Fold this protein.
Amino acid sequence: MLFPKKVKHRKWHSDRKGTKKLVKPETRGVTLAFGSFGLKAQSQARVFSNQLEAARRAMARQLGKTAKSWIRVFPDRPITEKAAEVPMGKGKGDLKGYCFDVRPGRVLFEVDGVSETVAREALRKAGTKLPVKTKVIARE
């Protein structure tokens, strides 16, 4: 699974409540940069590193050995969670894992070196492993 080698801050501040309504579309990472086909996010969600790994594995299994794939996001946001049945207070919880905040329009994966049908099917399968609505895009 993906996670940073070293972090400046072990725990981040929590986001404000109710900010999901004010989600702005992504401005960076919205076009294909490496491959011919890509998986683009249509909605907003937090994608955890284990979800990205599951999507990558599903995609790689479908693509085979000849294809080249790129992961365009990196989970560097730490997520904490308090243990089960722990009373309120006594500080912030322990580190649970890392995630990436996906906004609409962000390209998550790219693929090249295979036919269009294989690439579309592989990216579709990868999209089912993620908590965001996605669509497969192609280079014009």
